[in-house]
Design goal:
- The protein has 210 residues and is of the alpha/beta class.
- It has 6 helices and 13 strands.
- It has a 7-stranded mixed sheet with strand order 5-2-1-6-7-13-12, sandwiched between helices.
Length: 210
């Protein structure tokens, strides 16, 4: 018997740059399509038609994955997607880079601007794992008052940006949901994160149908 293919439920946009987490990348590409979602990678292309990024190397220097991205984050609308995910490792630190800075003014990196628009899009779910809350930390107003989890080594960054870290004993929590935002501790919890993210998308769809 041939298994039925789930109906297309829309796209999940994944923000990505150099030094992305390979385990998350592999699992996103495997899992979300089986749940009916197309995965589309977004980045700032710096006026290039495409850019190729490589995964963060393993401890032995092995690089397990690369991706060619053709979608400029400034040219798409958050409303085109059911969900937006910020991939982990160092990619989000790179995406918050600004060529020029105006003292006292908010970060204007294209990915940060896109995140601002995403947070204002009704019904859109946003996900972040491990270090990827760094993109939120580019502008304190994006994270102020949110309940989240993250990697232990960026707790100070996240708290300084105004968020409340959720703990389980003496560890940051595995997965936390705060309204439209789903966060996970690190790549070891990617499966749990993806399942919860899809459940949140299904809840939004059900609410919209009533």
């Amino acid at each position: 018997m041939v298994a039925s293919i789930p109906a297309k439920k829309g796209k999940i946009g994944v923000l990505i740059e150099q030094h992305f987490d390979p385990d998350e990348y592999i699992q996103f590409n495997r899992y979300f399509p089986t749940q009916g979602y197309e995965v589309e990678y977004l980045t700032h292309l710096w006026d290039q038609p495409s850019l190729k990024f490589f995964a963060n190397p393993d401890d032995d220097g092995t690089i397990r994955g690369s991706v060619v991205v053709t979608v400029e984050v400034s040219h798409v609308s958050p409303a085109d997607y059911r969900g937006i995910i910020l991939i982990g490792a160092y990619a989000m630190d790179r995406l918050r880079y600004q060529t020029n800075i105006t003292p006292g003014e908010p970060n204007t990196a294209p990915a940060v601007e896109f995140l601002r628009r995403s947070l204002g899009t009704k019904g859109l779910k946003i996900g972040a794992i491990c270090h990827s809350l760094w993109l939120f930390c580019a502008d304190r107003t994006l994270l102020q008052g949110r309940r989240v989890t993250c990697a232990h080594n960026i707790v100070c960054d996240v708290e300084a940006a105004g968020a409340t870290i959720v703990y389980e004993g003496n560890q940051t929590a595995a997965v936390v949901v705060d309204g439209d935002l789903v966060t996970a501790k690190h790549p070891g919890f990617t499966q749990q994160f993806m399942e919860r993210f899809v459940a949140e998308l299904a809840g939004t769809a059900a609410a919209a149908a009533t």
